[in-house]
Every structure is written in structure tokens, then in C-alpha cells.
Design brief:
Length: about 240
């Protein structure tokens, strides 16, 4: 392949064909961009990570000061996990991903943040189904409670990677998640859609407070700003 485009990994997964690729954008100073595709859908790009970082920043900002145990649902290229570890209050971080290949990219150093995550003793990469763990009585670690859960897997509560994930976004699914949080714990969620008032109302039936934050970021490919949503809900 040319130096401007390289396929770094290809895997058949239960969710479809998973591809990690790197391309160079000459018009942006020979910038290397890492991209992930699942089937025909683009999952993520290193060109856009402001919202992934904001997910950690906004979620952890809602916690009371202390030493926190945190779960990140969805490893991806690692931006949410690294942003969480940048906070001095985080004493442990469990990053859950259902795709073993994605965890492998980080352990093999195929993605830019891989060595940083795998080299941090606070961070543990977990190959598991986040939604199954959230629904289980044992939760994410044999019944241990956490201070925050930061989720970036589905495109939005309505635009899912798999139909079975829909149960999580119901009151029953969110109550199961909340049972794994300490009092005052926080659930934060990334969404590629605009704020959804119906989903906010659902969050408020489970959590004591819930808000939607619009996060804008420059999109050089479209030559304009784009925006996503970060929901932050706090347990009473």
C-alpha cells in the first residue's frame, strides 16, 4: 500500500468485518489519521476526539472529590480512557470492550494511545459485553460498586450497533446500571445525535439529576463545526 493509506488490521467479528486503517492527509501537514470501520459504518477516527475526551471530563466533573473507581464502556481508540486517567481522582479504571481485536490493537501498539493505556497500572482492559455486565447482579467486578460509568458504544440511544442493546436504555436497564454505582455516582453517555428529550426523561426516572451537554468541535473535512451530545446523570 502507499504511504498515504495502510490497512493495519482486519478481523471478522460477531458484529461484522472490523478494519483498522491509517491514512495520511497531505492538506493537514501530513497528519496520520487512524480510522475504524465495522461493516460499512465508520465507528471512529483519531481526527475527531474532542467529544470522547469531553465524555470523561464532564462525567468526572460531576463527582464529589475523592478517589474514584471508574468503568469505561467501549475502548475504541482510547481517548475517553486516557482522558479519565488524566484526572488525579481516578484510582482504578476498567475499560470494557466486546471486540477482542480492539483490545489487541492497544496491547500490540497499533494505535497511538495503546502503550499509554497498557502501561498505566490503574488501567485494566476487559474483554466482555458491557451491556451483559451492566444487566447482571454481579456487575462489572464481582459485585463491586463504582463511582462513574462512562459509555461510548452505540451511536446514540436510538441508533444502536445491535438491536439487543436497546434494553439498556429503558428504565429497567438503567436501574440495573445504577445499582452498580455508589450513592452520588455518575453515568455519562456519548451520543452522536442531538439531545433527546424522551431519553432525558427516562434518565430522570432513574437518576436524581440528568442533563444533556452539546459539545461542538471543528470538522476540517466539512470545513465547519460539528456537534455531539454528552448526557450526565447522577445517582441520589
Amino acid at each position: 500500500m502507499s504511504r498515504d493509506f495502510e490497512e493495519l488490521d482486519y478481523q471478522n467479528t460477531p458484529l461484522g468485518e472490523l478494519i483498522l486503517r491509517r491514512r495520511r492527509i497531505p492538506t493537514m501537514g501530513e497528519l496520520d489519521v487512524f480510522e475504524v470501520k465495522l461493516g460499512e459504518a465508520f465507528l471512529m477516527s483519531s481526527l475527531f476526539h474532542v467529544v470522547e475526551e469531553a465524555l470523561a471530563q464532564l462525567g468526572l466533573a460531576a463527582l464529589e472529590p475523592g478517589a474514584w473507581d471508574v468503568v469505561v464502556g467501549g475502548l475504541g481508540l482510547g481517548y475517553t480512557a486516557v482522558a479519565a486517567l488524566d484526572h488525579p481522582g481516578v484510582r482504578s479504571l476498567a475499560v470494557v470492550d466486546t471486540l477482542e481485536a480492539v483490545i489487541g490493537w492497544h496491547r500490540r501498539g497499533l494505535v497511538p494511545l495503546g502503550r499509554q493505556l497498557t502501561g498505566d497500572p490503574r488501567c485494566r482492559l476487559v474483554h466482555a459485553d458491557f451491556f451483559a455486565l451492566a444487566a447482571s447482579p454481579e456487575g462489572f467486578d464481582a459485585g463491586r460498586k463504582f463511582h462513574a460509568v462512562l459509555l461510548d458504544i452505540d451511536h446514540s440511544p436510538r441508533n444502536l450497533l445491535h438491536p439487543r442493546n436497546a434494553t439498556f436504555y429503558t428504565p429497567a436497564g438503567l436501574r440495573a446500571l445504577a445499582s452498580h454505582l455508589h450513592p452520588g455516582g455518575v453515568f455519562a453517555l456519548w451520543s452522536d445525535d442531538s439531545p433527546d428529550e424522551e431519553f432525558l426523561a427516562t434518565l430522570r426516572t432513574v437518576f436524581s439529576t440528568a442533563a444533556a451537554h452539546i459539545v461542538s468541535f471543528p470538522n476540517p473535512l466539512l470545513d465547519r463545526d460539528s456537534a455531539s451530545t454528552v448526557y450526565v446523570a447522577r445517582k441520589g
